[in-house]
User: Fold this.
Amino acid sequence: MLTLAGTSLGLANAARAADGRNQSGDALPTVNVTASGARSAAIAGFDEAPLLDTPASVAVVTAQQMRDQQSRLLSDVIKNDASIGENYAPVGYYENFSIRGFTLDPASAYRIDGLTAAGEQTIALENKERVEFLKGVAGLQAGVVAAGGLVNYVTKRPADVRSVVLGTDSNGSRYLATDLGALFGEQKQFGLRINAAHEDIHSYVSNADGWRDFASLAASWAISSRTLLQFNAEYQQKAQRSVAGYQLLGGATIPAGVSPSTMLTPQSWAQPVRDTSLNYSLRLDTEFNSDWRGYITAGRSRAVIDDYLAFPYGSGGGASPYFAANGDFDVYDYRSPNDDRRNDEVQAAVIGKFATGSVRHELTMGAAMSRRVVDKSDGISSLVGSGNIYTGTPALPPSADIPGPSYRNLDSRQKALFFSDRLQFSERWQAIAGGRQVWLDEDAFNSDGSVARHTNRNIFLPQLALIFKPQPDMSLYGSYAETLSLGTSAPFWVSNYPTTLPPSVARQLEAGVKVDVTPDLNLTAALFRIRNAYEYQQPDNSPAGFTYVQQGRQTNTGIELGASGKLTPRLQVGASMAVTRARASDTGTAAYDGQQAVNVPRLRSAVYTDYAVPGVEGLNVMGSWLYSGSKPAIRDGSASLPAVHVFNAGLRYKLRVGGHLTTLRLNVDNLFDKRYWKDSGQYLGDSYLHLGAPRTARLSLQYDF
Assistant:
């Protein structure tokens, strides 16, 4: 599996030289660095590599851009790339997303410094240097993972930094964050960095307020000029009332005339969703000689969720999994306490350079072991009454049912051996050949401790790529990759609940071109095709009327265009466009064959600009335009969310206060207060419709001291 913290061996020397002197004691020259954006990433391989030499589609959003956009959630970050969309990301709950039209798997698609993180948490951004997105199949990097790709959070490293941020928004939220770091020791070989934040969340949705506390520690020790030890830990508590989505009226109609500020089921006994998470890791890098180096890293990610909701679902006392045609819905007392998810992982790799004749190699070999366990009760979901999307929900009594005890639901273990060889035949031609041998051993359990399902799968996942560079600042590539994608579980209203479908292999072909027009501006284009098994509730003659099956395939074919960097010394841009044809075939249900996949628009685009105003030193104006075409809300395509344009604007002003840099930021999201549906994502077998946020202004002050 890849690691994205980078090998960081250069930091050992950098730390030793950070006091401004080289090894001989002479003063080092001052170097001023200006970067318009990330130029490298490791998410598509096992080591940091220039994006120009990476034969995959990678998007990187830097800490600077996240600060300027005042991002608090990953849903704020993904607005910068058209290939990434929300897929069941309700207010107050942990979010999930899709890339290239495939839903990400929370068990394996979210990573911190390359190690898997329990995706059932809201990962904080305060201590993140950047967020990387690998778009498409990632079998070499991750083994068992959904076809959409990976999201990796890269943590900030220790540095001499001291800053505080105060913020608020038009809903009255309050925000405080600090970033404190130092390098110390005779040769600056030690480093510490502490990030902390508190947020009082005042939501635009009635009865959906909450709070969040966060703290993190990053430490480093340059043991020698060749060996570096790094430690990271982050802890977060968040409590906020979750906002349930709508469902199709009568299973066929998009609700109309509803407000994003409405909580469908406000009940005095409903509680905020509480999400407590702890993520930590330790990594040791060492350089054996000038050509060979290695690392070993291990980490744990744990998220514990407490759900106590009044949940709107279906209608007719359980007769239908959709809201009624007139807007009626059933209300359930849903409780799932102490939902405990834990990911453990360890990996080691060696990376070396050598030559065989005229061919130069950069070889990576390694091993990884991971384990994911889920401990939770079956909870309760008890019908307590009904409401209506237009007339509201009356006060209802809570259920007298009590959730049963927690038990081990899942124990999933993976072992893997991986390798990747970058072969450079000449200055123009490169090839990458690699693969990952995966041993998956997984047990799902019943509440009495018996095994409900056992999965044992051994598979080799290849990845091949060819790169041609007609000139140093341009690369053309083609690639092939496979991954093993776990099957999903049947919803409760089908005949074979709670069956989990078997794993399936997803395959991807991709071709692309990357051009560094200038050192500060790059252009990208990629054409891809991904095929994966199609899983759905098949209508049949069973007593339930449906059976959850894996039949046919979903084929997503698309083209992505992107531009990132500086058009002029004053104007920075980020633009992307994704055209995606996501179709089902051979499903056994004629009404679904040939239909665009649920929640996947055929066209999405995102444009971001940042302009330094001439004549006013330190003032920048920012703006973005997001477009999503219509996207189906049901498998037969008979109902779709309409297309939408959303505009955002912002100002950033830098000045000196008491000799210290101070930055004021004002952002207005959804500038024209557009009412729109942001996603029709699926969760546990059902589709939900979520409204986009109304116009929201955010104001912050950052003081560096």
Helices lie at 9-17, 63-68, 74-77, 139-142. The longest strand covers residues 328-356.
